[in-house]
């Protein structure tokens, strides 16, 4: 594809790949390490998960502001160097067998990771043309799907072959490679500093909060953008439900004796579906309008989730999950390719910075509702699937009524912008004559 002829994109793509590899392998290997060495204290594994998620709450209002106000290339690159340095400290913490110190390093490293992707995502917007945004979103979704499918297996294989120290060393090398790839990118200053150079003396709490508020205001004032960002909230609901409902379905209905084994197959089925769906949508994205890649797959997802509640066979359950993943792929590609076209480059970081906390908020709400309802109020897990299917169905109807109109208005605006650009380019020639 033409997109891979862009050397800057190729380097950023592989930088994101190695960055994700460093994060995933270390997290998985460390989970196995805790379960092996502290099998009588399983809450350690839970605390480790909290070390990965809690930093979002503390830094979510900063990540977008940093990506917009500072040099995006340096932000992404320095995230890799800092995480590489923290990984060295992780070696020391493991050698001292100090679990509190290990948790502290993991917490800080996870907080630094939150700054990487908004900056990297904003750089991608600056080096591609508008027609390539959907392809880039599809490739990033495929990357996520690969780690969803193989992440646990890769982490387990590395941990079992070269141990926890070897896994941490792979982390270190991954971050170093990612940092070097970003350093060798030749990205124009307009993409790196769309808001101009910022002086340190101008940085304070008031300016940070003002920028953060500006990002929220920008999203709310743009109705199409608001509706699309709401899509990530829906992804959070799906993530929260699928984080726990498949295990409930396996344990209490389908296969009580082997639910752990088949729960892992759920992740593989979903990941393969996402991989296939993302690959297909990357190829066909230019042939369909973005709202078509959202409305129909969301509607199909609601029906498939409804069927999950009916099924009483593990094989059929996993097949349906695969097709759900196939439907989710185009949705994410459509949103990921549409948002860069809508958002001004000066505010891309602040908009991207809202995605992760919004998804986590929806995921937390969903998990809380499930914990409250099951099994005290709702005794059968199937009803949870039916309720989730109804919610997704309502979302598809909402998008069916709103997105076509908003999409047409956006396309008209785009046509006016393009006519204005052509007129601007042609005017010097007219004047010279």
UniProtKB/TrEMBL annotation:
Highest taxon above the source species: Bacteria
Pfam families registered for this protein in UniProt: MFS_1
Keyword Chloroplast: no
Protein name, UniProt field: MFS transporter
Membrane topology: Multi-pass membrane protein
Keywords for the protein's UniProt record, in alphabetical order: Cell membrane, Membrane, Transmembrane, Transmembrane helix, Transport
Bilayer-spanning residue ranges: 12-35, 47-67, 82-108, 139-158, 164-182, 224-245, 265-286, 293-310, 316-339, 360-378, 384-403
Protein's cellular compartments: Cell membrane
Keyword Aminoacyl-tRNA synthetase: no
Region (Disordered), start-end ranges: 414-433
Organism (species): Metabacillus rhizolycopersici
InterPro entries per record: Drug_antiport (IPR004751), MFS (IPR011701), MFS_trans_sf (IPR036259)
């Amino acid at each position: 594809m033409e997109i891979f002829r862009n050397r800057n994109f190729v380097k950023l793509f592989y930088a994101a790949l190695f960055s994700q590899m460093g994060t995933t392998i270390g997290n998985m290997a460390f989970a196995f390490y805790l379960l092996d060495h502290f099998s009588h204290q399983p809450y350690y594994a839970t605390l480790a998960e909290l070390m990965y998620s809690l930093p979002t709450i503390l830094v979510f209002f900063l990540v977008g502001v940093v990506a917009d106000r500072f040099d995006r290339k340096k932000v992404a690159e320095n995230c890799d160097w800092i995480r590489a340095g923290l990984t060295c400290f992780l070696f020391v913490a493991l050698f001292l067998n100090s679990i509190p110190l290990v948790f502290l390093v993991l917490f800080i490293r996870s907080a630094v990771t939150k700054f990487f992707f908004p900056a990297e995502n904003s750089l991608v917007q600056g080096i591609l043309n508008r027609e390539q945004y959907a392809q880039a979103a599809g490739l990033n979704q495929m990357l996520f799907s690969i780690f969803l499918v193989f992440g646990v297996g890769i982490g387990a294989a590395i941990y079992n072959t070269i141990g926890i120290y070897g896994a941490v060393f792979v982390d270190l090398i991954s971050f170093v490679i990612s940092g070097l790839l970003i350093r060798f990118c030749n990205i124009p200053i307009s993409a790196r500093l769309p808001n101009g150079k910022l002086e340190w003396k101008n940085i304070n709490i008031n300016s940070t909060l003002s920028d953060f508020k500006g990002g929220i205001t920008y999203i709310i004032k743009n109705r199409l953008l608001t509706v699309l960002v709401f899509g990530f909230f829906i992804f959070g609901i799906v993530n929260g439900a699928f984080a726990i409902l498949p295990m409930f379905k396996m344990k209490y209905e389908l296969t009580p004796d082997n639910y752990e084994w088949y729960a892992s197959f759920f992740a593989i089925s979903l990941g393969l579906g996402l991989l296939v769906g993302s690959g297909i949508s990357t190829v066909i994205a230019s042939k369909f309008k973005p709202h078509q890649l959202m409305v129909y797959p969301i509607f199909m997802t609601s029906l498939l989730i409804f069927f999950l509640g009916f099924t009483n066979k593990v094989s059929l359950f996993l097949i349906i999950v695969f097709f759900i993943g196939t439907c989710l792929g185009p949705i994410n590609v459509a949103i990921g390719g549409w948002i860069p076209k809508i958002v001004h480059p000066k505010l891309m970081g602040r908009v991207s910075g809202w995605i992760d906390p919004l998804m986590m908020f929806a995921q937390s709400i969903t998990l809380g509702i499930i914990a409250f309802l099951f099994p005290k109020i709702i005794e059968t897990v199937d009803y949870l699937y039916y309720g989730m299917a109804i919610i997704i169905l309502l979302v598809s109807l909402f998008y069916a009524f709103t997105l076509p109109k908003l999409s047409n208005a956006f396309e008209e605006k785009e046509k006016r912008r393009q006519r204005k650009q052509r007129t601007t380019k042609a005017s010097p020639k007219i004047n010279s004559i």
